[in-house]
Specification:
By secondary structure, this protein is of the alpha/beta class. Helix content is 64%, strand content 10%. The protein has one domain.
């Protein structure tokens, strides 16, 4: 019971010291991102804390893939329009989780790694998050597993 109170305290106090700015775009996409952020906080407080530690802005862009960038204006996660149009809060949460680890590697480099190795680590991190979701869409897990297998083959060559 004490652990529940500690978790609730952490979740409720987090917005007090950090706020991610979500840019307005599309048909209420900012509200869907807010829901995705809440889902992350409810699912895994540590993942949420990392996200708010490394990300200042969430924006949308026309590209086949979501991405990220570090600049003087703030560390940004860019959500691909295709991801926003999927109408899946869980998918948006997975995008934020995945891209936050990329930002973490950019901000806190431990070792020089190949792009494929970093991408593999991000999909493993994402899959770990997916496995904690109460009812994830099956395709989210299937996609992460497929990418992990594909990237694992590249790494071993």
């Amino acid at each position: 019971m004490k652990g529940l109170f500690v978790s609730l305290f952490l979740i409720l106090s987090i917005p007090c010291f950090s706020q991610i700015k979500v840019m307005k775009a599309g048909d209420g996409w900012d509200l869907k991102v807010d829901s995705a952020l809440a889902l992350i906080a409810q699912t895994d407080v540590n993942v949420y804390i990392r996200l708010i530690d490394v990300c200042d802005i969430v924006d949308f862009w026309i590209s086949p893939y979501s991405s990220n960038n570090i600049s003087q204006d703030g560390n940004t996660i860019y959500i691909a329009v295709g991801d926003a149009k999927m109408n899946s809060i869980a998918n948006l949460a997975c995008v934020l989780v995945h891209e936050s680890l990329h930002l973490n590697y950019l901000l806190h480099p431990v070792t020089q790694s190949l792009e494929e190795e970093e991408e593999l680590k991000c999909y493993i991190y994402e899959l770990s998050f997916i496995n904690k979701l109460p009812t994830p869409e099956p395709w989210l897990q299937a996609n992460a597993v497929e990418q992990i297998h594909k990237l694992s083959k590249i790494k071993t060559k």
